[in-house]
C-alpha cells in the first residue's frame, strides 16, 4: 500500500505540531521517522493511523483520500512503546483480540481465530508460548506478541511508535534485526518512529529526518549520512564538530590560514564547516591543516577521541585516534579532513 502525505498540518490549541509535511511512502517500504523529542513524529504516525485528523492537508492510501476515514477503515496495525497487552488474557487471546471484536459478518470463527493466532505466534518466533500470560514473558517477547496482535487483522500498513524504546540495548538490537527480517518476509508497508539515529540508519530503506514539525530530509541511510541536507541533519546523525570559516572564491579560510579543502558552490562570506571525528587524519604537514591544542580526551566504543582547541576563538573539534596512535593525548596536533560539509552561515 502506497501512502502519500500532502501538505499536512496539525495544530493543537493553535500551536502547530506538524507544519506542512509532504511525503510519499512506497508500497513494501520500511521507513523510519527520526527526530528529537517533540519534532512531530508521533503526531504524523497518529494521523496516518487515523487516531487524529489533520487541520489541513491530506493523506492518500493508494488512490484513495483516507484523510477522514476511521481507524477501522484504514486497515492499519500499530504498536506503541508501552503497548499494554491485556493482562488477564493469554498470549493467544491477546493476538486474536482484534479479530474477535470485528463486526459480525467480518468475524472469523473461534477455530479460525485460534488457528491464525497460532500461525502468528510462529511468525514472531514464539511457538509454544500461546497459553502464557503477559507477566510470564520478557519485555522483548511482549513486544513481539504486540506485533503479532497488530498483524492479526492483516493490515496493509504497519505503524510502530518507538516499539523497542523501553527495552534494554541488547534486546533492542536483536529485535531490530528480527523486525527487518519479518518486514522482508511479510512485505508490509512499515512506518516506524524512533529518536535513535542508529536504529533508523540500521533498519530502514529510507529515513525521514524531522525537526519542529517539518521534514528536514528524506533519503536512504547513505544519503542522509553522506549528503546531509542541513546542519541540523548533519549534527543529528552522528558525532560532529563545527568551525566558523570564511569562503573566498571557492577557497576556505580558518582565520587567515587557507585550509586544504574547497567549496566551489558556496557564496563568498562566512560559512560553517562541519567535521566528523572519524573523518580527520593526523598529519605532520602544516600546509592547509587545522592545528589545535589538546583540550580533553574521551573514550568511546572502539576509539579514543581527543578534543582540539582551534584558533583564537577557542572553538573545539573532536578527532578520533586510531588505537595505534598513543602519546597523542597532549600537546598540539595538526589534522586534515578527508570528508567535510560546508554550509553558508545563517
Ligand atoms: P515526537 O513524537 O516527535 O516526540 P509529538 O508528535 O508527540 O513529537 O509532538 C509534537 C508536538 O505536538 C509537541 O510540541 C507536543 O507537545 C505537541 N502535542 C502532541 N500531541 C498533543 C496533544 N494531544 N495536545 C497538545 N499538544 C500535543
Ligand atoms: Mg513520540
TrEMBL record:
It comes from the Bacteria. One of its GO terms (molecular function) is ATP hydrolysis activity. The keyword ATP-binding applies. GO terms for biological process: quaternary ammonium group transport. The keyword Cell cycle does not apply. Keywords: ATP-binding, Nucleotide-binding, Sulfate transport, Translocase, Transport. PROSITE patterns: ABC_TRANSPORTER_1, ABC_TRANSPORTER_2. Gene3D superfamilies: P-loop containing nucleotide triphosphate hydrolases. One of its GO terms (cellular component) is ATP-binding cassette (ABC) transporter complex. Residues 3-237 form the ABC transporter domain. PANTHER family: SPERMIDINE/PUTRESCINE IMPORT ATP-BINDING PROTEIN POTA, SPERMIDINE_PUTRESCINE IMPORT ATP-BINDING PROTEIN POTA. Belongs to the ABC transporter superfamily. This is Sulfate/molybdate ABC transporter ATP-binding protein. It comes from Jiella flava. The lineage of its organism: Bacteria, Pseudomonadati, Pseudomonadota, Alphaproteobacteria, Hyphomicrobiales.
Amino acid at each position: 500500500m502506497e501512502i502519500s502525505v500532502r501538505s499536512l498540518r496539525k495544530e493543537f490549541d493553535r500551536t502547530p505540531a506538524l507544519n506542512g509535511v509532504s511525503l510519499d511512502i512506497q508500497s513494501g517500504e520500511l521507513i523510519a521517522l527520526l527526530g528529537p523529542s517533540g519534532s512531530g513524529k508521533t503526531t504524523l504516525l497518529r494521523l496516518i493511523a487515523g487516531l487524529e485528523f489533520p487541520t489541513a492537508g491530506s493523506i492518500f492510501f493508494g488512490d484513495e483520500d483516507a484523510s477522514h476515514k476511521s481507524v477501522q477503515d484504514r486497515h492499519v496495525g500499530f504498536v506503541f512503546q508501552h503497548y499494554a497487552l491485556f493482562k488477564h488474557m493469554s498470549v493467544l487471546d491477546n493476538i486474536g483480540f482484534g479479530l474477535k471484536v470485528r463486526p459480525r459478518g467480518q468475524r472469523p470463527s473461534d477455530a479460525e481465530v485460534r488457528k491464525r493466532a497460532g500461525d502468528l505466534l510462529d511468525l514472531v518466533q514464539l511457538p509454544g508460548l500461546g497459553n502464557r500470560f503477559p507477566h510470564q514473558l520478557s519485555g522483548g517477547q511482549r513486544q513481539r506478541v504486540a506485533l503479532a496482535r497488530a498483524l492479526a487483522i492483516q493490515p496493509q500498513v504497519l505503524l510502530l511508535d518507538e516499539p523497542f524504546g523501553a527495552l534494554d540495548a541488547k534486546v533492542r538490537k536483536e529485535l531490530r534485526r528480527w523486525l527487518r527480517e519479518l518486514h522482508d518476509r511479510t512485505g508490509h508497508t512499515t512506518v516506524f518512529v524512533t529518536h535513535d539515529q542508529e536504529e533508523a540508519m540500521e533498519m530502514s530503506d529510507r529515513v525521514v529526518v524531522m525537526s519542529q514539525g517539518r521534514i528536514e530530509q528524506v533519503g536512504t541511510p547513505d544519503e542522509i549520512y553522506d549528503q546531509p541536507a542541513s546542519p541540523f541533519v548533519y549534527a543529528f546523525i552522528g558525532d560532529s564538530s563545527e568551525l566558523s570559516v570564511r569562503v573566498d572564491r571557492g577557497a576556505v579560510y580558518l582565520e587567515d590560514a587557507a585550509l586544504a579543502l574547497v567549496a566551489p558552490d558556496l557564496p563568498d562570506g562566512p560559512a560553517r564547516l562541519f567535521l566528523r571525528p572519524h573523518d580527520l587524519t593526523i598529519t605532520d604537514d602544516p600546509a592547509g591543516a587545522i592545528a589545535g591544542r589538546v583540550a580533553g580526551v574521551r573514550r568511546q566504543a572502539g576509539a579514543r577521541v581527543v578534543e582540539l582547541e582551534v584558533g583564537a576563538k577557542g572553538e573545539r573539534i573532536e578527532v578520533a585516534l586510531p588505537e595505534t596512535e598513543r602519546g597523542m593525548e597532549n600537546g598540539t596536533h595538526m589534522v586534515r579532513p578527508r570528508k567535510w560539509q560546508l554550509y553558508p552561515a545563517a
